[in-house]
Amino acid sequence: MQDRFIRSITQLPTPLADALIPLLHQGFAGHIDAQQLAELVKSSNMTESEVLLALLPIAAALAKPPISEFYVGAIAKGKSGDIYMGANLELPGEALFHSVHAEQSAISHAWLSGESQIVDMIVNASPCGHCRQFMNELVEGGQIKIHLPSQDSHLLSYYLPYAFGPKDLNVQSPLLVKQETEFALDSSDPMVIEALDHAGLSYAPYTQSYAAVVLETADGATYCGRYAENAAFNPSMLPMQMALSNLTRHNRDFGEIRRAVLVESSQGKISLVGAAMDALHAVAAIELEHIVVDPI
């Protein structure tokens, strides 16, 4: 079991902890598939809702909050039945807008894993306005059921009445609907090709600034992040922050980063290179490789 879960596992009921420990191997990064979840429910003799709420300390153990020192865990349950953990991330010494909220982390985890819809969000603190707006960007966002400890569950629309979302800006295919933009680039560099693929899957209906980041560690492992825009603009999730959150979930240290690539569209109304460089330089002393590509 990974060291980061040693304290949190003691907060779980013993039958659930015993069933969960084999899953918390060195490769565990917060994904539990539907069959594994069903086995946890059966072994613990708890309801699924009880299990998901009980797992929040495990999700919170993925957090990296050097500024607030407030650990928040979130679990997104997909339409597939799989669950995806996420946690808050703060960059030391950097402006607070660089932070990743736990709900964003969990949702981006699901998105990068190919999930097409979130049906439940379990979180250990009431979602802030930023996260409510971010969730509202998703497929059937208002119908996502929010679960909090010791509180009744409610739909997101309860927490975000009179919501402003993609349809208000004439966007008919919200976040998590698979969309692909093709770009022209001739490269044999696997890392650049990976970044290009993720840029094509990014979500940028308001600026057309399709973009992605790939980080590589010394052992050759790569961690990606895509741009995810929001109708309210500010809750947009930048690709560098998503990549850093992805790397952290996989229990890797920022000091292990050896290479970073940003690929973005030449036709976008904005550029993400400045923000990406600021975030990267807050955690790693390496230069960002910036590649601009033309849509086909």
UniProtKB/TrEMBL annotation:
Gene3D superfamilies assigned to the protein according to its UniProt record, in alphabetical order: Cytidine Deaminase, domain 2 (3.40.140.10)
Enzyme Commission designation: 3.5.4.5
EC category name: hydrolase
GO cellular component labels: cytosol
Function: This enzyme scavenges exogenous and endogenous cytidine and 2'-deoxycytidine for UMP synthesis.
Domain of life per record: Bacteria
Gene: cdd
Cofactor(s) listed in the protein's UniProt record: Zn(2+)
PROSITE patterns tied to this protein: CYT_DCMP_DEAMINASES_1 (PS00903), CYT_DCMP_DEAMINASES_2 (PS51747)
Subunit annotation: Homodimer.
Protein name: Cytidine deaminase
Catalytic residues (positions): 103
Residue ranges occupied by any CMP/dCMP-type deaminase domain in the UniProt entry: 47-167, 186-296
GO biological process: nucleobase-containing small molecule metabolic process; pyrimidine-containing compound metabolic process
Binding positions (substrate): 88-90
Catalysed transformations (reactions): 2'-deoxycytidine + H2O + H(+) = 2'-deoxyuridine + NH4(+); cytidine + H2O + H(+) = uridine + NH4(+)
Pfam families according to UniProt: dCMP_cyt_deam_1 (PF00383), dCMP_cyt_deam_2 (PF08211)
Upper classification of the organism: Bacteria, Pseudomonadati, Pseudomonadota, Gammaproteobacteria, Alteromonadales
Record-level Gene Ontology MF annotations: cytidine deaminase activity; identical protein binding; zinc ion binding
CDD domains cross-referenced by the UniProt entry: cytidine_deaminase
Residues at which Zn(2+) binds: 101, 128, 131
Cofactor binding description: Binds 1 zinc ion.
UniProt signal peptide: none
Family according to the record: Belongs to the cytidine and deoxycytidylate deaminase family.
Cited InterPro entries: APOBEC/CMP_deaminase_Zn-bd (IPR016192), CMP_dCMP_dom (IPR002125), Cyd/dCyd_deaminase_Zn-bd (IPR013171), Cyt/Deoxycyt_deaminase (IPR050202), Cytidine_deaminase-like (IPR016193), Cytidine_deaminase_bacteria (IPR020797)
Record key words, sorted: Hydrolase, Metal-binding, Zinc
